[in-house]
Amino acid sequence: MTAMHIEEGHFGDVSLDGLNWVGMFAWPKAIHEGAGEAFVIVDEKANQAQRDALLTILSGGETEPGATIFNVFSTVIDRMHEPAFLPIMFEVDIDRREGRVRVEDVIDTRICPIRNPITGEAHRARVSLPNGFEYKEAEYASGDTKADGSVSLNWTSRHAHVAMIDLSTHGAA
Q1: Which three-class secondary structure state does DSSP give residue 154?
Q2: pTM confidence score
Q3: In this predicted structure, what is the pLDDT of residue 171?
Q4: Which of 36, 60, 95, 140 has its CA 20 to 30 A from that of 81?
Q5: At 76, which helix (H) or strand (E)?
């Protein structure tokens, strides 16, 4: 699963400021082997132009080949379920590696810091990818997700990461 809150952004002359989206993804084998499926929820607050803009971005449209995670994933997803437009609760504190994304009756994801298995103290793990197509720097965390619907997900204490990103059709800035 992945989710984003857009503090400020645009697609052409369409403002995307303040919108959220959530995506649920699944592959039968390794991602690069393809045959994936995706289900996207766009913030119900989005007007039609904003919905169209976000769905174009999320499908990798109008992006240089391989420049963004959306464009890369578009090459390994065979089934895109019809999108939904619902209220999305989105909270995140990147420095604390804590957050929650929830769409009622669809998905609930929580993240927390990775914990030392002996002391229980929070670990801080930050990864820097100067040439990354998803992000340039991210905080790593632990996450739990439960999703019911078109793409079902259910896991606890798995990898999660949070990042501030600046994307364009050319990739992550």
Answers
A1: strand
A2: 0.93
A3: 85
A4: 140
A5: none
Q: What is the pLDDT of residues 92-131, one digit of tens each?
A: 999 999 999 999 999 999 999 999 999 999 999 999 999 8
CA-to-CA separations, 155 to 40, 41, 103, 160, in angstroms, rounded? 19, 20, 17, 11
Going along the chain, which residue ranges are E strands?
2-5, 10-11, 14-15, 20-26, 36-43, 77-80, 84-86, 89-93, 98-103, 107-112, 114-115, 122-123, 125-128, 137-147, 153-162, 167-168, 171-172
Cα dihedral 154/112/167/53 (nearest 10): 50
Question: Which tokens belong to 130?
Answer: 């100067």
CA distance 52 to 58: 10
- From 3, 43, 5, select the one nearest 23 (Cα to Cα): 3
pLDDT in tens, 58-94: 999 989 998 888 999 999 999 999 999 999 999 999 9
Q: Are strands 77-80 and 36-43 parallel, antiparallel or unpaired?
A: parallel
**Residue labelled with tokens 């606890």:** 156
